[in-house]
Amino acid sequence: MSDYVFGGADLVGEQREAMQRCLDPITFARLEALGVGPGWRCLDVGGGGGSVADWLGRQVGNTGSVVVTDTVPDGLHAGGNVEVRRHDIVTDDLPEAEFDLVHARLVLLHLPERRRALARMVRALKPGGWLLLGEFDCTTLQVLATNDPDTGAAFARFHRALCAVLEQAGADIEWGVHAYQAVRDAGLVEVGSVARADPWPGGGDGARWLEINSRQLEDQLLRTGPVTAGDLDEVRSSLRDPDFVVNSYLTFSVWGRRPDDGGGQVTR
Ligand SMILES: C[S@@+](CC[C@H](N)C(=O)[O-])C[C@H]1O[C@@H](n2cnc3c(N)ncnc32)[C@H](O)[C@@H]1O
């Protein structure tokens, strides 16, 4: 199984919930723009807490269906037209030319074999089917407002350490920027992208997510060097203070369509 940095971490349930509250509105708007509707057959890769699969299940109705996968599928909900599969997108096969939509959010970023996984996802698309990725550029997390400049410096050290831990585990911390090229290289057409960042004030879902990450990865963060236990305490208390505001990661939605001719060009 691949080395997903949060795989064995505590607080995973809370992490998934905060993540979903931050990102679902962005993802659902993008899926609506792609036209997801009744009758579609959808695949959500690395579905985590299952919110996207559940939403897709409602959108596609009785005539459609959803397969949602994860290496750790304990947060996913099977039932109705939603099927859950334990599946590793790096190593396990997928059916080919099967889905009208393949979606993955914050999965490929973490996987060193992301291009191979992407190629597998592309082959799972029907001719004319859509791929949608939701990915971060992790380098953009910056303090927007604080009453205490020292806290801003501690946060910067925390952020540097977090990026280092992700990279040591094989993540591409700028994958949000690189994904467009990868989707085009994978043979998809009508490739598009939109990126946004939102303020994450202390006490909100984004800040809570970061605080959870600081606890999940505490040992690894401290081992990287720049951040101290005192910094982490300070960062955690700032992340509960509404006057402390950070800019979220830059969040990219990247999409593309498998050519209607059957996609002879898609990469293997
Ligand atoms: C950051 S979470 C994102 C969860 C969900 N996509 C979301 O955005 O709410 C990454 C998810 O990918 C899963 N994952 C990690 N490596 C995977 C792999 N090789 N194949 C499938 N899923 C994987 C993890 O278990 C986790 O649920």
Polypeptide structure, described:
It contains eight helices and ten strands. The chain is an alpha/beta fold and 268 residues long. It has a single domain (12-257), classed as Vaccinia Virus protein VP39 (Rossmann fold), CATH 3.40.50.150. The strands form two sheets. Strands 3-2-1-4-5-10-7 form a seven-stranded mixed β-sheet, sandwiched between helices. Strands 6-9-8 form a three-stranded antiparallel β-sheet. It starts with 11 loop residues before the first helix and ends in an 11-residue tail after the last strand. The structure holds S-adenosylmethionine. Residues 2, 4, 16, 19-20, 23, 45-49, 69-72, 88-90, 105-107, 110-111 line the site of S-adenosylmethionine. Residues 43-132 form the Methyltransferase type domain.
Say what the CATH topology is: Rossmann fold
Q: What do we call the CATH homologous superfamily?
A: Vaccinia Virus protein VP39
CATH architecture: 3-Layer(aba) Sandwich
Shape: elongated
The count of domains is 1
- Biggest sheet descriptor: 7 strands, mixed
Relative strand content: 15-25%
Rg, please? 19 Å
Domain Methyltransferase type: 43-132
Protein name: Methyltransferase family protein
GO molecular function: S-adenosylmethionine-dependent methyltransferase activity
InterPro entries: Methyltransf_11, SAM-dependent_MTases_sf
